[in-house]
Write a structure and sequence with these properties.
It is a single chain. The chain is about 20% helix and about 30% strand. Helix 2 packs parallel to helix 3 and helix 5 packs across helix 8. By secondary structure, it is an alpha+beta fold. It has 17 helices and 25 strands. The chain is elongated, with a radius of gyration of 42 Å. It folds into three domains: about 150 residues, no CATH class; about 300 residues, no CATH class; about 200 residues, no CATH class.
């Protein structure tokens, strides 16, 4: 039997391409081409004639087997794949064109060419046959589906890996803005002393409440950063009324539905708190607050807050408060940032800095160098029903927890947002909750500043929308035009030490303090006030006014034995006249001359207050020409504590005493009662706070 007789298609097909090329080489045939071409070439050379094999079955690949998807896969994935396949099919159909059919060229040239002979050493160890478009036939749909799935899976894997690596919280940008909801929030106060502090500052809104009150809050709000004209920044003034500062302007607005419930008074004089329930529902409360944070030193220069409250009968009370840096508030200023921090959406980069937010990160990580009583920990990322993927972060204030209650915050953080997309604050303040672990200094401070009673706050914010601003806020920006620290600032050379009182030296008010005290001592030498002053006592509070044609002083005094009282002294044709007097229980006011600081004169301070360019929003309410409005009352107040070495170490010079210049004006206008109050630091000449209340007349 010849070798050709043993050759058939089946035996050749079972060989490798390399073996087939070796057979072609021995027969002097071309060794190039695909396996099927090599088989046909050998069969033709051997003279074997067979019926052509139908390969349609091989090419007819069931499209239903092209992509096997698990029944549990989301429908959205299947729809996405089918949509992409449909688009690919449309493109392929669009590319079908008519072509001119040309006759095949003669193969004679190919037959005359010398056969290509490849040595065995030149044969590749691995031959990969790349499919052509024509060889794919109808399989392109299946291939496209597989490619789409690979892309989708790859993209999902990439997102997952990026998400797991954590992120740094976004920095504020000029123009940033977030809208949010206030959900199921409440504030409750239990205890008359605690409630009285809040009631006195609400412009009569909480006047019917006594003993306890609760407020339920729901509504919407927004927090934003203004896109100002100076590369994003805006100009602002400081507590001294100086101009030239560039600042980032931050705003927060709230529109709330408020329901009140609590106890109310038994009598019309509001002296006997009963058990009768007081309910006031259907109220509207709106608040707009703007803060100016200086860029170079990142200090809050000023905060302007307006509040409008309307009850169910549409009776409206308005209030406006302008505060400056908290240092002027003494020890209370040290507590205010802690108490107010959880009550508005937290600025994340200001709090976390460059910390990476990822599962397991916490404030105790040694590389952070964390220096705050707020401790935090990041939990496992999860998908929130409203905001998508978020990292939950739990905050806890250690000192409050040990000393007077608790303060915890839950934040949901999302990459790219400078504020939490959800914030839940839970605060409870009560001096009676103090533990044995409380730091002694903090305990002393809370005893001095916190009133008796319980304050509970529950606030929940949830983001509705967020829009990104332009450039990042450029903190620590150097710029020209801002005043130096010592520029236009009262110095030590103009301070005076007390003798009987704070020095006045006014040139715009008749009957100044020095004239009044001199007249009191000479005309009423046996009065309690005179005896107190002659024995080392002093006037710790005084207020000048002109309710009639003659000016008068309302003076409060204290002596070394902690006996205290007050008197009203008016100028008269005889020099002065005591209109009324009174005394307090011993110890109600504490004598502590050593704690009285040297102060500026009332004359110097009032000249700055009445400069309309320093405080242009305040001047119209207190000024008349170059002097005070005739309805204004002007004076000062000294705040001291008992001689305590511990208190002298507390922030804000609480133990050293604080002297504040004050001014008050009350008047009626267009059927409404209005009042304005201000407080200025008598040592530095810095405005601390002023507020305006506008309420309906009774």
């Amino acid at each position: 039997m010849s070798e050709d007789d043993s050759i058939d298609r089946e035996s050749l097909t079972s060989n490798t391409v390399a073996k087939l090329r070796e057979i072609c080489k021995k027969r002097g045939l071309l060794v190039s081409g695909k396996k099927s071409e090599l088989v046909e070439r050998i069969l033709e050379d051997a003279g074997v004639v067979e019926e052509p094999v139908d390969t349609s079955e091989e090419d007819d690949w069931d499209e239903g087997d092209a992509l096997v998807m698990d029944d549990d896969e989301p429908d959205v994935t299947r729809e996405t794949v089918e949509e992409v396949i449909s688009k690919i099919e449309n493109v392929v159909e669009a590319e079908v064109v008519e072509a001119e059919v040309l006759p095949a060229e003669s193969n004679e040239i190919q037959e005359d060419e010398a056969p290509l002979v490849v040595d065995e050493d030149d044969q590749p160890s691995l031959v990969i046959s790349m499919p052509t478009l024509s060889s794919l036939g109808d399989r392109w749909k299946a291939l496209a589906a597989v490619i789409v799935v690979v892309i989708l899976v790859g993209a999902a894997t990439t997102v997952f890996l990026q998400r797991s690596s954590g992120f740094e919280v976004a920095k504020l940008r000029y123009g940033d803005r977030m809208e949010f909801q206030v959900i199921d929030s409440s504030i409750s106060i239990d205890g008359e002393e605690m409630l009285s502090v809040v009631r006195d500052s609400t412009g009569g809104i909480l006047e019917p409440a006594c003993g306890e009150v609760s407020m339920d809050l729901d509504g919407t709000g927004s927090v934003s950063v203004t896109e100002g004209p100076n590369s994003g920044a805006v100009e602002t003034t400081d507590s001294l009324g100086r101009t030239g500062f560039l600042a980032a302007e931050k705003g927060i607005s709230l529109d709330l539905d408020v329901d009140f419930e609590g106890r109310t008074w038994r009598d019309d004089s509001n002296t006997d708190c009963g058990n009768i329930r007081w309910v006031m529902s259907g109220n509207d409360l709106s608040m707009d607050s703007t803060s100016w944070v200086e860029l170079e030193k990142t200090e809050v220069k000023r905060t302007d807050t307006s509040i409008s409250f309307s009850d169910v009968d549409s009776v409206t009370t308005n209030a406006r408060t302008v505060t400056y840096d908290s240092e002027g508030l003494g020890g209370l200023g040290a507590l205010l940032p802690t108490l107010s921090f959880p009550l508005t959406p937290i600025e994340l980069h200001d709090f976390f800095g460059e910390a990476v937010i990822k599962e397991g990160a916490r404030s105790s990580d040694p590389d952070l160098g964390w220096n705050s009583d707020w401790k935090w920990e990041v939990k496992k990322e999860f998908r929130d029903d409203t905001h998508g993927l978020v990292y939950p972060v739990y905050l806890d204030h250690e000192e409050i927890g040990r000393c007077y209650g608790h303060a915890t915050i839950l934040l949901h953080l999302q990459d790219g947002s400078p504020w939490p997309v959800r914030q839940v604050a839970d605060i409870r303040l009560d001096k009676n909750l103090q533990t044995n672990d409380c730091d002694f200094l903090v305990s002393t401070l809370s005893d001095e500043l916190l009133p008796e009673g319980t304050l509970s706050i529950s606030m929940t914010y949830s983001s509705i929308s967020f829009s990104t601003g332009s450039s990042e806020v450029d903190w620590e920006r150097n710029y020209l035009g801002s005043p130096n620290d010592g520029e236009d600032r009262p110095g030590t050379s103009t301070k005076r030490n007390w003798v009987d009182s704070m020095w006045d030296d006014t040139e715009i008010r008749q009957f100044d303090m020095e004239e009044a005290v001199s007249c009191l001592k000479s005309r009423y030498p046996d009065s309690q006030a005179t005896l107190a002053l002659e024995s080392g006592g002093y006037i710790w509070r005084a207020s000048w006014s002109r309710p009639t044609s003659e000016p008068q002083w309302n003076m409060s005094w204290v002596d070394e034995d902690d006996d205290s009282g007050w008197l009203v002294l008016q100028r008269s044709s005889e020099g002065c006249e005591i209109l009324s007097t009174g005394s307090n229980d011993r110890g109600e006011v504490t004598w502590n001359r050593d704690s009285i600081p040297s102060t500026q004169t009332l004359s110097l301070l009032e000249s700055r207050i009445l400069d309309s360019e320093r405080y242009p929003d305040l001047s119209p309410y207190v000024q008349s020409g170059e002097s005070w409005n005739l309805q204004a009352q002007v004076g000062y107040r000294l705040s001291v504590t008992e001689d305590n070495e511990i208190l002298s170490l507390l922030p804000g010079d609480l133990g050293d005493g604080k002297v504040t210049m004050t001014a008050v004006r009350e008047w009626e206008e267009e059927g409404r009662e209005k009042s304005v109050d201000l407080a200025m630091d008598s040592e530095t000449g810095e405005m601390v706070i002023w507020w305006l209340i506008d309420s309906p007349s009774e």
